[in-house]
Design goal:
- The structure is a single chain.
- The chain is mainly α.
- It has two domains: 145 residues, no CATH class; 100 residues.
- It is 86% helix and 0% strand.
- The longest helix has 57 residues.
Amino acid sequence: MTKFSCFITGEDHNLLRSDTPKSKQKVAALTTALFVPVAFWFISTFLLTYHVLGEPLWIALSAGLISSFFIFLIERIIIMSNGSKAMIIFRVLVGFVIAALGSLSIDEVLFKADVDQQLVVLEQEKVNAELEVIDLKSDDKLTRMNQQIDQKYEQWQTAVGKVQSEADGSSGSGHSGVGDITKLKQQHANNAEGDYQAAQSELINLQNQIAADKQGAKTKIEESFSQHALLHRIQALFDLILTNNYMLTAYIFFTVLFLAMEFLVVFLKVALPKTNYERRKDAMEVVGERRINRLISHDELVYQPDQANPKVKKANRVLEGISTNSILF
């Protein structure tokens, strides 16, 4: 178990196995804490991909493994880092982002039925908005055509009235019966009726075209509103969160839960006291640094690179000879 923990956290197994039990316990605790967000991310990503987005099993497993692997790498970097303030601030910022995304994924899984219902509402709202646009565009045409139909109907009825009054002699030529004038007026009435019927047919064609446009727009929106579309589902989820206090409470709860899991490694790394193993590593670093500094300072005093030059060596020998002769004399 210690060897596995050292492999995960990047610690030196040979150094740790001869150390105190507390040192081994801290490494094991950090290893366990690392796998908490990793496991949670695998489960939430798998459920989101498989049960919500409707992807095949192998894609859901792959997505879960990939997401959890990246979380594993981030947590491992945190464990292996020196715990500086910059690293902690960076981890906090990343943790907030990861917690928000994780909360979204788990909410999408737990409230799948509610989100599905909200998607239907959003789809109907979009359909109604599109149908309203079509109605606004066609209102003017329908109004003008209805006015024309009313005018043609009045013209037809007026022509029929003239035919009747001509036939009974109450107006027109004053002769009753169906004469030439009556037949001529009847022809005008028939023409007026034809114009009225043509306008009626044109109105029906326009209404059919409007109905076809509405059906086409509705079909297009329904096809675009897939139950497995992630962005649509996120929009539906936030609509529920902003309008439903229970959903808002659940979202906040899961966000806090994800934050707690994301910061678990950071918290343990900062909160747990230093162990003998960590003090030994710090001491090794200090001793190593002092040895390097001592070697550097010693080399600066002893090592003279010009002495390796043959001309310098020859000149030094000449100077030594001159110095010896001067001493002798």
